């Protein structure tokens, strides 16, 4: 599995960005991750659309969208389902209709495989979360078993710590003192 300090892999994938007819899809590339505007990226993966735990996580990321935006951080959700399955799921699930971030389709499973998060038996993505800095470097990785949803507040807490570029003690939260050496 790719880890901290490694460059996020190059990719070009279709994503669902809207429910508006004719504007549903866009191509996202790894160029989107690298920028001079100091914008970070959180990319989170789920195993399958039309399941039970996954929409709870996606909805929670969406509820927290403003907190990520306030931290100059883009959100990208992803799975190995197709863009058409993503679109159908968004259209049919009340909690997913008004998503403010793209749902990336890794139908070929090539990006999940390159990241090392492809479950070997079913060939679906693990519940992986990557925090990527503005240079396209992975700064945090977390992977949950398929049956356990992640904690979005912890993703935000870690993002806050990384963005301080300082030493943050155990259980540190934004606004608290960092460590000085």
Automatic annotation (TrEMBL):
Domain Thioredoxin positions = 2-164
- In terms of superkingdom, the source organism counts as Bacteria
Entry coiled-coil feature ranges: none
One of the Pfam families matching this protein, by short name: AhpC-TSA
GO terms, molecular function: peroxidase activity
Q: What class of enzyme is it?
A: oxidoreductase
Q: What is its EC number?
A: 1.11.1.26
What InterPro entries would the database entry show?
AhpC/TSA (IPR000866), Peroxiredoxin (IPR050217), Peroxiredoxin_AhpC-typ (IPR024706), Thioredoxin-like_sf (IPR036249), Thioredoxin_domain (IPR013766)
Alphabetized, the UniProt keywords read: Antioxidant, Oxidoreductase, Peroxidase, Redox-active center
Q: Which reaction is recorded as catalysed by this protein?
A: a hydroperoxide + NADH + H(+) = an alcohol + NAD(+) + H2O
Q: How does it associate, per the subunit comment?
A: Homodimer; disulfide-linked, upon oxidation. 5 homodimers assemble to form a ring-like decamer.
Name of the protein: Alkyl hydroperoxide reductase C
Species whose genome carries this gene: Mucilaginibacter ximonensis
Upper lineage ranks? Bacteria, Pseudomonadati, Bacteroidota, Sphingobacteriia, Sphingobacteriales
């Amino acid at each position: 599995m790719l880890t901290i300090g490694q460059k996020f892999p190059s990719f070009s994938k279709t994503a669902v960005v809207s429910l508006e007819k004719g504007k549903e899809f866009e191509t996202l590339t790894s160029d989107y991750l690298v920028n001079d505007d100091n914008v970070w990226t959180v990319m989170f993966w789920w195993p399958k659309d039309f399941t039970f735990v996954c929409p709870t996580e996606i909805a929670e990321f969406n509820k927290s969208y403003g907190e990520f935006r306030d931290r100059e951080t883009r959100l990208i959700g992803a799975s190995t389902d197709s863009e058409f399955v993503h679109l159908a799921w968004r259209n049919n699930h009340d909690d997913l209709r008004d998503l403010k971030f793209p749902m990336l389709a890794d139908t070929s499973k090539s990006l999940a495989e390159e990241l090392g998060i492809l479950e070997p038996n079913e060939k679906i993505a693990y519940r992986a979360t990557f925090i990527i800095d503005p240079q396209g470097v992975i700064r945090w990785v977390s992977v949950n078993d398929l049956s356990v949803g992640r904690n979005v507040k912890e993703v935000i807490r870690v993002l806050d710590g990384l963005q301080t570029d300082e030493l943050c003690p155990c259980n540190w939260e934004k606004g608290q003192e960092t460590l000085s050496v």
